[in-house]
Design a protein that fits this description.
The protein has about 160 residues and is mainly α. The chain is about 60% helix and about 5% strand. The chain has five helices and two strands.
Length: about 160
């Protein structure tokens, strides 16, 4: 492997690993994704981890490129022609395919469809469960604030 290829692998693997560990950078189904200040801080950390050789814009462009190729490959893997046997199934040979499988929740084309027999998809159920958990957290936080404030002499 040439030095250039080794560097490309290092950057791609660092990028993928960083995104995998920071779901708020890629999973638009979670509330943290929509908080730009968190993403900006994380991307600043990634810029430093890559020794300032890339800007935030470069990193985001590279991520989008990796995700685009992954979506294309994932679509080919998921596509099963009618009457095809197991030997006819497409297996991706793209070097980063296995590394990006953690993004399946946003890459599956069928996650927003509803099967009229079985009801909402599991992705929608997970999204609702996350939403319910976040609401419960907010409720508990609100109760904690009220309890703390009621203990302060100026609020009694």
């Amino acid at each position: 492997m040439t030095l250039r290829n080794q560097f490309f692998w290092f950057v791609a693997e660092t990028l993928i690993s960083f995104y995998q560990n920071n779901e708020c950078l890629w999973n638009y189904n979670i509330p943290e994704y929509h908080t730009n200040s968190n993403k900006d801080l994380l991307l600043d950390c990634l810029v430093k981890e890559l020794e300032d050789k890339y800007t935030k814009e470069d990193i985001q462009r590279k991520w989008k490129s990796l995700l685009k190729v992954y979506r294309q490959e994932h679509g080919k893997v998921q596509k099963k022609p009618s009457g095809s046997g197991t030997s006819d199934l497409y297996r991706s040979s793209w070097e980063f395919y296995a590394h990006l499988q953690f993004t399946n929740s946003i890459c599956d084309d069928t996650e927003d469809t509803i099967d009229t027999i079985s009801g909402p998809s599991s992705a929608k159920k997970r999204k609702k469960e996350r939403h319910d958990i976040e609401n419960k957290k907010l409720e508990l936080f609100e109760q904690a604030v009220v309890a703390i404030l009621s203990a302060l002499p100026c609020y009694q």
